[in-house]
Amino acid sequence: MTKRSIGPQTTVAVHPMVIVGTYAASGRPNAMAAAWTGIVSSNPPAVGVSVRPERYTHQNIVRTKAFTLSVPGEEHLAEADFFGIASGRDTDKFEATGLTPERATKVDAPYVGEFPLVLECSLIETVELGAHTQFIGEIVDVLVDEDCIGEGDRPDLLRIRPFLYDAFGFGYHSVGPRVGDGFKAGRRFLKR
Amino acid sequence: MTKRSIGPQTTVAVHPMVIVGTYAASGRPNAMAAAWTGIVSSNPPAVGVSVRPERYTHQNIVRTKAFTLSVPGEEHLAEADFFGIASGRDTDKFEATGLTPERATKVDAPYVGEFPLVLECSLIETVELGAHTQFIGEIVDVLVDEDCIGEGDRPDLLRIRPFLYDAFGFGYHSVGPRVGDGFKAGRRFLKR
User: Fold this and answer.
1) pTM
2) Is the pLDDT of residue A192 over 70?
3) What SS3 class is residue B173?
4) Distance from the CA of B76 to the CA of which of A150, A183, B35, B86 falls in 20 to 30 A?
5) Interatomic CA distance for residues B70 and A187, integer angstroms
């Protein structure tokens, strides 16, 4: 297949959508949408999230050295999108959406009570990259809604109903059905 | 909704699936599957991918300071999974799968010719995190299959057909339909 060069584009096709929860100096909880995030290490278990220095969230993380990532279900897509439009400097985003800021138990940060999956993170690395700072947090605990626990007592992706961000089309997509088994689908290519 | 604490888990629900392409010292192309990856900065346009120090790919990136990320379509799920099972130390993974290593034009690394989306990356930062090293590459070019270009002359996610990794269920999921518009769905919460 012929390929077209489209120049530097910031996309790996599939992007998670998370809400970064932090406390402002005043104690007010804030929430910011982020798609530039992902797991960066298994031990320590760690996640990275990139935030522009001018965002309100940035100074909050620098000060508290803590944040949460709340993963919205599809039923809260509009609220999650709003968290990426408004700024916590002039808006109480929890009040505007009616969502509930809950205090994390293990780190100094709030999470979105209505969202099914929450990572509590303690800042361990800060990587300055130009337009963005990548904050790397150790994942000290994960919270899951009881009704999202499925087979094998494990969280079930299709019950969490996360959605993903498409940077090409500036849109959100749902997660489709399971189409393969990890570390198994490719065994047919192993030499006997 | 009552939440259950499940301890530190390395997941943000949605994980991209990419194949890291590198050259070995012998010149042999290698490919490794990675789900711990994501965009980390817009300027410079940069992507991070985490690799265990014991992986063959690790020493290749350290030596060449370059890598590609090839995003597989669903039709190559088994091959992509295989790239995460076998090691380039004892296997020519391109030969085993019948896929074609193509030489990137802007960096010293190979990509998977049959995969619809390719990022050519030049190493700019190395972050040591314990079990993993996060390699951050500047995205110097992106290649897309001509038949994946859609409306507005933009790459179309549903033609690329990427799939995502579910760390809870050790499985792959397809990308579902578009369910919302970015920076638009949440406008209803803006104060008038």
Assistant:
1) 0.97
2) no
3) strand
4) A150
5) 20
Q: Is B65 left (phi over 0), alpha (psi -120 to 50) or beta?
A: left
**Per-residue confidence at A191, pLDDT binned at 50, 70, 90?**
confident
Is B75 at the interface with chain A, CB within 8 A?
A: no
* Chain mean pLDDT for chain B: 96
| CA A102/CA A21 separation, integer angstroms | 10
Amino acid letter, residue B107 = V
Q: Which of B2, B39, B145, B165 to mutate to test the interface with A (most CBs of A within 10 A)?
A: B39
A95-113, pLDDT tens digit by residue?
Answer: 999 999 999 999 999 999 9
Name which of A36, A127, A189 is nearest B127 (Cβ-Cβ): A127
Cβ–Cβ < 8 Å for A8, B42: no
Chain B residues in contact with A134 (beta carbon < 8 A) = 40-41, 48
Nearest chain A residue to B3, by CA: A145
CB contacts of B125 in chain A (<8 Å) are 127, 129
Does the predicted interface ipTM exceed a cut of 0.95?
A: yes
Chain A residue with minimum CA distance to B137: A129
Contact B175 A169 (CB under 8 A): no
